[in-house]
Amino acid sequence: MNSYCNKTWKEVLELVDNLPTIKEIRKYNRSHNNTYTFSEDEIILFRKKAELFVSTTDLDKLNVIHVTGTKGKGSTCSFVESILRACGFKTGFFSSPHLVDPRERIRINGQQISKEMFTRYFYSTNESIEGAFDGSNKTSFFRVFFLMALRIFVEEKVDVAVIEVGVGGLYDLTNIFRTPKVSGISSLGLDHADKLGDTIEEIAWQKSGIFKMTVRCVPSIDDYDFQGRTVKLGLKGEHQGINASLALQLCRTWLEETHPELFQFTDVRGDPENDNPITVGKKPDKRLVKIKTWEIKRVPPFVVPEVFLQGLRDCFWPGRSQTFKRQSVTYYLDGAHTPRSIRVCIDWFLAAAEKEAKGLKGPVARALLFNTTGQRNAEALLSPLMECNFDVIAFSPNVATDSTSPSESTCHKMAVCIENNAIYEQLQLEKSTPCHDHDKNGNGNVRGFVAFAGQPMNHACHMTSTCCDSSSKGEHNAVFTCVPRALRWVAGSKDTELGGPLGDGPSIPVQIQNAAHIQILVTGSLFLVGKSIEVLNPDLVTKSLEPQE
After folding, report:
1. What does the alpha-carbon distance between residue 370 and residue 527 come to, in Å, rounded to a whole number?
2. What's the CATH fold of domain 9-258+275-314?
3. Interval 96-116: pLDDT, tens
């Protein structure tokens, strides 16, 4: 009998949670003077080890679409998978991170794999991998899941494998394919600077490392010929247009490479200016003063087949510009965590919230649930969010367990929340005048507050073994021990499925009490969005529960 047969799903998840992350492995290796580098040597070694699990011949047969980028790579992959599935192909999709369930990382035909399949492949991969990786090459969470995905895609005989890069591209563990059918890069920005570099040029060089062929730039979504049909994207936000355009081009190229007989694509002649190549930067040669550059030609837009439109329309990607309405609360969920993505998130939230407010009766309050992870600049994210004029703001670590006696680890994570709260208070103090908003009847409602009368909150309780919720004297912002308590506070009693008001935490602000409806934006961290979904409704990761327009 196989070792996993008698394991419960809870036991499987506990073992998954105990897998070390890349960050933990690097810390371990440094403490033991082992070598672990974000380098070509590491990828070459991983490629050799991977052959113990999936042969090079099988990898070459996977018909891979490989996608990287700073923002939008997951959305692009999701569009690609949806389009090709609509075309009748059996799709495999590997992505990261997951929001609630680790099975989200490996999908067949748009659905996360079954618990039975996950357990079977996880145990066989994890047990085999122990002997293949040791010392400085110790296995990691990401390695196990990526090797699992490859084995599943090969053995399930998928027609196409859509692979989302983890971090970067050139030295990412997914960059082991010798002959991907097509590769793509979504929008670039400054993120993971410690690994990829602190300039766009250096980051672009890292991302372009997945290319094995000619490089081209995609056109605007508006340049395509949809033959008069309405274009409706399954993913919300104007920024999804460029991701959809990249997906259209990736699908076209993949089909022309693998099934040229299925579609005859017709190019669209557009503005001649769009035919001019784009000059982009390359990684600086340290021996030179100037940055090398090269030109990228644009690919033409084309007449879009009806089945492609179906794929764009049916696409679903949880935790990104996602809304969920329950009782008198609407949750706006977006895992934006860079200045650029926060800007996009704000534009989406303001437009969607204002549109919803026009159809509501009575006063509407706005609330923010926020957190950051890693070394991200919280002020750069919170500062633009101030223009949303939230009535209340809650800060919480990415913890879904409702507890008034959090662990030492949670208390450590709360230190980040405390710092973020202090940054918010300083930003609030710097505002010289209140921002006024007007409801549909023209009544002036003051949103936001110039400054809090009280001193910054006493953080002493957070540094003890029993961390606790705490608010400033003004009671319009507060730090909580976990996501459930934070959500209960910002929702007041308007969503009874969360539970009643907190009996032992900060009092509910007047704006929340008097509101007929509350709009809550959850952002700053994709992991925070995941924990919020886990608390609200785990089904949000597998299907859209948005109100129909």
Report:
1. 11
2. UDP-N-acetylmuramoyl-L-alanine:D-glutamate ligase (3.40.1190)
3. 999 999 999 999 999 999 999
